[in-house]
Amino acid sequence: MIDFVPLEYYFSLYINLMLLVVVLTLLHSVLMRVDDTVNLRYTQITGYILLFFSIFYIGLRPVSGAYFIDMITYARYFEYYAIGGEVVVEKDAFFHFFMKFTSGFLPIHGFFLLCAAMYIYPMYRISKVLFKEYWYYSFLMLIVSFSFWPYGVNGIRNGIATSVFLLAITYHDRKFIMFSLFALCSLFHQTLLLPILAYSLTIFYNKPKYYIVGWLVAIPLSLAFGGMWETLFTSLGFADDRLENYLTSTELGGRTSFRFDFLFYSAFAVFTGWYFIFKKGFKDSLYIQLFNTYLVANAFWILVIRANFSNRFAYLSWFLMAIIIIYPFLKKHFFVKHHVIIGRVVLFYFAFTYLMYFVYYAGK
User: Among 48, 45, 134, 142, which Cα is nearest to 338's?
Assistant: First the structure.
């Protein structure tokens, strides 16, 4: 266990180390080409260091409910199962059976380390499969994403579920494996049915123009009709009791205003996809599928944006954002100083995460 880092500085240390890595990556982008041997050596070494560091730093963190919130709940269940307790919950039973199984041969910190590996390794794999020797840039974007840390240390089950979705995408050309992994991620967290259904829709209809229109229309619909959408989705049976509370309760302490800041953040991926597909003529069927999946899932969140803890719905699209933004840059050279542009994209993407944590939330 990593107990030599004070808990109050645990995330600050991580995010400032990532700032150093992002700045060094920007410096490399200014000094050399993306395919330069020295740059490739740097990205490979740094990438693997980041892979193992992030897994062990998150996985071996101290158990704390004050700083990692839901972690203490997971720990109590795990310890109960370790002394022979039976699975008694009806909801999320798959994850509880997983905890009970691992409690038979792992200590508590081994369990959280395994969860961290299950969360982070798929991010490495999808980056490696899709982008080959340039995987580092995608992986770095994923682990500096605004939603990366919360779903690694707090919403653990949600984070693992979305990562299994990413793992499934690496088998997009082997549909049986892909849909088997889709089924698995929905067992970890049933809300993954939304991106699964969205991706499945793109298999039959994959024209981004109409998905973009749908995303844009969702904004005035949400502004005009407000809480009607939360009530509608609940009445149609799209939520279990817990999600129904997120959608309709006013007693949970969540934010219930229209989140223009998060809409602005979400729009970065929408603009990127629109720009490369329609302005640059980037024709990549998988990219367009992922982009359209993002649009559908994000449009759903926009409709329920006033719901308590709507960030939980936003995450059903946000976990794809880093891939959506960086994908075209790593597949084709669009600009004269292409590597410099990549470095700036990584910096600006990370800047939102950094500023939100140290400027916006620091004042709350």
Answer: 134
Spatial CB neighbours of 55, under 8 Å, sequence gap ≥ 6: 113, 116, 117, 120, 121
CB distance 172 to 87 below 8 Å: no
Whether 46 has a pLDDT exceeding 90, the answer reads yes
Q: In degrees rounded to 5, what are phi and psi of residue 269?
A: -70, -35
Do residues 293 and 198 make contact, with C-beta atoms less than 8 angstroms apart? yes
Q: For residue 217, give both structure tokens.
A: 């229309």
- The Cα 193–Cα 183 span in angstroms is 9
Q: How far is CA 322 from the centre of its chain?
A: 8
**What is the residue-wise DSSP string for 74-123?**
HHHHHHHHHTTPPP--STTHHHHHHHHHHHTT--HHHHHHHHHHHHHHHH
- Phi–psi pair at 324, nearest 5 degrees: -60, -40
250 band by pLDDT with thresholds 50, 70 and 90: very low
**pLDDT score at 313:** 83
For 183, the 3-state DSSP assignment is helix
| DSSP code, position 6 | -
**Cβ–Cβ < 8 Å for 93, 86:** no
Both tokens assigned to 235: 């009445």
Say how many Å lie between the first and final Cα of the chain, rounded: 30
